[in-house]
Model the fold of this input.
Amino acid sequence: MYKKVSADMNFVEREKEIENFWRENDIFGKSIRLRQGSPTYMFYDGPPTANGKPHIGHVLTRVIKDMIPRYRTMKGYQVPRKAGWDTHGLPVELEVEKLLDLDGKEQIEEYGLDPFISKCKESVWKYKGMWEEFSDAVGFWADMEDPYVTYDDNFIESEWWALKQIWDKKLLYKGFKIVPYCPRCGTPLSSHEVAQGYKAVKERSAVARFKVVGEDSYFLAWTTTPWTLPSNVALCVNPEETYCKVKAADGYTYYMAEQLLDTVLGGLAEEGSAYEVLETYKGTDLEGREYEPLFDCAVEICEKQHKKAYYIVCDTYVTMTDGTGIVHIAPAFGEDDAQVGRRYDLPFVQLVDGKGEMAEETAYAGVFVKDADPLILKDLDAKGLLFSAPKFEHDYPFCWRCDTPLIYYARESWFIRMTEVKADLIRNNNTINWIPESIGKGRFGDWLENIQDWGISR
Done:
């Protein structure tokens, strides 16, 4: 039987009355104590960061989180609900940087790590009271008196315990991972963070001439990141595509993809043919051909690693949609490059430091990578090794926190072998009653099917 609600009812006032009744009579505590000895359904709140204000999105997540424990309580379970606070992470550190008028890792270290951490521990509780009032206002029940706190030693030691279990199972290892990296903050970003900071930018790319060993000819290769060229160790062609050796109207002989000849060379002659095809190859025919490095700065590094460099490799990721059909390979600065590097056992050359500045081995020591682009293009042009530097517009990721251009950068990282437990993850996922089912079978299920090893030291 439904009871008619008066049109004069003040819902806000009524909510406050219920909120006060719950608090004064400890209804949440009673809901747990009355079920002593019943089966336990444990709930740990996915912790918010208390140095940021709650917003409308948190209302939705708070309500959903509250709904399931209430349902389980009505089913007869004892449901302890542990509140938590996330007290780690860059949002906290950036807040304190602003407070102390510091800029970046070096200034933080000069200020002192211990006093900086102490300031972070103070800052993290900035909006704790607001979060507690907000949680009460939306009817969210959780143990706010004894929450778990991520900077607490008990919590940290539980993390080390978990890592030890993973280590004992031989699922923890160290390797390199190409990550989107902010040189100003000195940290990688997750894919979700990267998605927050894209901007449309116009930049210069480079189509460079790589001199073929033993021939008066050149491989024409394209890159959108000229600053990676000093770290070049190979050139990559598509094994299944057709490539040509051509005599061009500018007097040079080039190797490049047949499909892109007109696009790249067509403007060399106002009248007549811009090029003459001398020979035709499959990409695999070029594999192993050697060329002279554009810069000498990486040669000694390659020799010290006792690995062969400066030759043609093959991979199907090379497309015919733009460029020349030949791409330059710098395994320290791109996931595709890194995979090719591992397959061919190429040297690892990283002539950029953690601040995003060109390394001292280069002629551009101390110059930020994006500022080095025009200097590199100028030097290549002076040596006759720059075919063109076309401008192109594209969406480029910037750090959402400090607005610094991100770079894709190889970082030494610890990994968990998620691929080793893939079958267990899929089997467990199939036992879950997903609502809607399409999430578990589709989005989440597809992610598990394509799971990669987890870089945890980010």
Summary: DSSP finds 16 helices and 18 strands in the chain. The CA atoms of residues 182 and 406 lie 5 Å apart. The first strand starts at residue 43 and ends at 44. The radius of gyration is 29 Å.
